[in-house]
Input
Amino acid sequence: MSTTEVRDEPYHANGIPPPNLDLPYPDSPGEITASLLKLTELAPNPRTRFVFKNLISKLHEFISETNITTEEWRSGIEFLTSLNEALTPGPRGQELNLLSDAFGVTALLERLNNPRIGNATESSALGPFFTEDAPDFLFGESIASEGIGEYMFVEGRVLTTGGEPIPGAVIETWEAFGTGLYDIQNAERTGPECRGRLRTDEEGKYGYRAIVPVPYAIPEDDPVCRLLQSLGRPAVQSGHVHVIVHAPGFHKLVTMLYPEDDPYFSTSVAQGVKKSLIVKLTEIDDETDARKRGFQKGTKFKLLNYDFVLLTEDEWAGART
Output
């Protein structure tokens, strides 16, 4: 499947549908570990269950007891990646980051290093597909080319914890195509697609055109996909939009927004879906409104409205001491 062909129906990577498990959102480090252990119970082979439950338990215990930082963990991944690239004909992309996701380590580190503080927007992991070449665009412009996904308009404000607007805040955003693939996964990539950068206006408002995020699967020939299959787990990430928000004097926010009604929230490979980051998409069927917002075809689009609340650097430092 090419990166420009929109998938009509969701599919189950490795042939495993989302299991009927009532798992909690990862609101605490312990819940992340407990959810991964419950997911590991799905493994059909008893020995596989035993080995991986112990591996996950000890790995999470090590991370918690040693208070490893995200930067320290990423340094370790970069080292292992350099070894991997030296031993293979070419780079394996983000294989070790994906393995970190599958073991819940990425989510555990993110939660331990970025606890929720007051009414500020919760953070999430950066993910493996961020690039530095996102183009600048103006209010209402589109980060996605025509025909690569279902229309969506994203709007809202960037505010202080006291509810005051933050003008000139920089918003960087990126997402996968309607196929579930990112632009940098396309061997024929000639430039950035489904990613961009804009600033809030004097009232702290922002708005841009995008496409509705879809759940996406790890390729079936990927080693981590085969590992998840052996564990009886679906190899699918919940659909999401990545967002980074930063402004002078404020702590940088790295987060994701997850459209509601996704069947993979509790079993998503990365285990990073937080309840506060799940958003409602309102369907609009109004041709006049669609054209006013810049959509070229049809009458329908989805509207995502979300306000980002930033901590000042002093608020962040005070809560961490």
Q: What stands out?
A: The longest strand covers residues 151-160. The longest helix spans residues 46-66. Residues 23 and 35 are 6 Å apart (CA to CA). The domain at 23-320 is CATH 2.60.130.10 (Protocatechuate 3,4-Dioxygenase, subunit A).
